[in-house]
Specification:
The chain is of the alpha+beta class. Helix content is 25%, strand content 25%. The protein has one domain: tt1808, chain A (Alpha-Beta Complex). The chain is built from four helices and eleven strands. The chain has a six-stranded mixed β-sheet with strand order 3-5-6-7-8-9, with helices on both faces. Strands 2-1-4 form a three-stranded antiparallel β-sheet. It has a two-stranded antiparallel ribbon with strand order 10-11. Strand 8 and strand 9 form a beta hairpin.
Length: 182
Amino acid sequence: MHMHARQFYTAEMVRNLPDDGNRYETVYGELLVSPSPRPRHQIVGGRLFAAIFNYLAANPGPLVLYSPADLSFGRDDVLVQPDIFVLRPEDASFTQWSAVGRLLLAIEILSPSTARQDRFTKRRLFQDVGADEYWVVDPEGCLVEVWSPEAPFPRVETERVSWIGPGATEPLVVELASVLRP
């Protein structure tokens, strides 16, 4: 029986893929392809971004951004574009994506086409090298899975999710009913 060797993708190979409307990423050499997000994905992402942006305006230091981005965490077999991510204060004045280190927070908003890669492939990466906290936001299930680096399972939030920025005295509290409403 003949087995095909799987193609191993580097960040450079992914950067050279055609600009065809898909989002291309690689995690530990595995190619991830996502179509353009649906409107609901963008609406939920906009609401979450606004909440974090407003929180950080009152608790300065970290910087919140959204993709497209080219995050590789110093690896040549990784190139990811989390939907929303928060940079550490020491990375907030970066000029190249390659200078971005570990994230304070990475967020992926699930779509039917990305659920497996967001929950497994990218989650492992963010736990290993990518983020102090990783949120998998499920608009259909009205919940957020909160992953920390060492956790074998997520903390599942169905009413609100909170996060505290470095140096902040109060946490950001996001009411899921308002962010995930249709």
